[in-house]
Amino acid sequence: MPLYPEIEPFATGMLPVSDIHTIYYEICGNKDGEPVLFLHGGPGGGTGMGDRRYFDPKFYKIILIDQRGAGRSTPHACLIDNTTFDLVADIEKIREHLKIDKWVVFGGSWGSTLSLTYAESHPSRVVRLILRGIFTLRRKELLFFYQEGASWLFADAWEDYEKQIPEEERGDMIAAYYRRLTGDDPVVRDACALAWSRWEMATSKLKVDPAYLQRADNPAWALAFARIESHYFINGGFFPEGYVLDNVDKIREIPTTIVQGRYDVVCPFKTAWDLHRRFPEAKFVVCGGSGHSAGEVEISEELVKAADAHRDDRLKLRGEQFVRPVTAGAVPPGGHSTFFAGGSFAVGEERGLPKKKGGVPWLENTFTFG
Q: How many CB atoms lie within 10 A of CB 225?
């Protein structure tokens, strides 16, 4: 299912949320539509025009915000009073400012962390979660990507990331980068921001995308992205180890879709699987030929499908016609299906996987949990 056409906001604003920080927000689509909040990744990544395109603009009132220090929010790349629960409080201030009672919350990568943490803090304000590339900021997740793990799969890109740090400091790459990204030498700081950002851009898709790498060539974007990410990671997300998963029981009644790339090395499949085991009620969609990025075709299609499914459910309740037809239960050729009922979960064919002779899926699993 393709992305919706590009659109422009009908309203933008800057909301002061503290004595230091002012948050940029924008609103697109239907002024009277179903509110949906898009939470960007990083932290520090900011929003872009492509982030508006997962949602039917005739149905949804689409709200995008740049989190503290990111994008058009000010001050740029600021780490003061910039923690997970500061961002959760900001989301509530935006919701109250816009006079929204409840909304759909949509986030991928770090956006999934923030979406889950917000929902766990304010479950009565979330009507649905749509999550991609699950990240819960456990230490082992960080070490896999920034210390050793992904480095074995992308050794060429790792070499450029590693060489910024002297050998005697490489036992803790996050800490070494953090010291430089928060140091006083602007040349070292900017070089480390570029290397940190290029490492993530190089590994975010199943196949390295040169155009995606160019995003890191914007010095202002790379500085905010690297500084804010390392700030959160060195501080363990500003919550106890395992916090997001340990609090998931608070949100198990919220309808939720999880979309996960099988070959995601930035936020590996194991974390999404751990969330699924804690949250079996959620629909769990595995994209068998994808990595991490929402820009991968099958991931973006599943995200649009999830947003459309919520729209269709709402329209059914109202007795209205669908805006765009959706064939319930259909699986495209070479596609995959995911369904759940009564505590059971099944994954059919995963997209992008080769088949044996006779069209038998190379990988087909069915899981039933008691």
A: 27
User: Going by C-beta distance under 8 Å and a sequence separation of 6 or more, which residues neighbour residue 263?
Assistant: 206, 269, 289, 290, 291
What number of other Cβ atoms are within 10 A of residue 361's Cβ?
Answer: 16
User: How far apart, in whole angstroms, are the C-alpha atoms of residue 12 and residue 73?
Assistant: 12
* Per-residue model confidence (pLDDT) at position 368: 26
Structure tokens, 204: 């975010």
The b/e string for 7-20 (b: 16+ C-beta within 10 A; e otherwise) is: eebeeeeebebeee
Dist. CA 46–CA 228, nearest whole Å: 11
Angle subtended by helix axes 155-162 and 186-203, to nearest 10: 170
Token pair belonging to 96: 């109250």
Six token digits for residue 83: 């923690």
Distance, in Å, from the CA atom of 346 to the CA atom of 338, rounded to the nearest integer, reads 6
> Nearest CA to 46 among 257, 189, 220?
220
Nearest to 202 by CA among 193, 191, 212, 187: 212
Q: How many CB atoms lie within 10 A of CB 363?
A: 14
How many other CB atoms are found less than 10 A from the CB of residue 157? Answer: 20
Contact 205, 56 (CB under 8 A): no
The whole-number mean pLDDT for each consecutive block of 10 residues of the chain, a chain of 370 residues, reads: 94 98 98 98 97 98 98 98 98 98 98 98 98 98 98 97 98 98 97 98 94 92 98 98 98 98 98 98 98 97 98 91 45 37 34 38 28
Nearest to 143 by CA among 219, 233, 228: 233
Other beta carbons within 10 Å of 327: 7
Q: Report the amino acid identity of residue 165.
A: I
Of 97, 100, 103, which is closest to residue 39 (Cα–Cα)? 103
Give 216's contacts (C-beta < 8 A, 6+ positions apart): 194, 197, 198, 200, 201, 222, 225
pLDDT of residue 106: 99
pTM (predicted TM-score): 0.88
Q: Which residues are catalytic?
A: 109, 264, 292
User: Encoding tokens for residue 306?
Assistant: 């999830």
Q: How far apart are CA 294 and CA 50, in angstroms?
A: 10
| 270 three-state secondary structure | helix
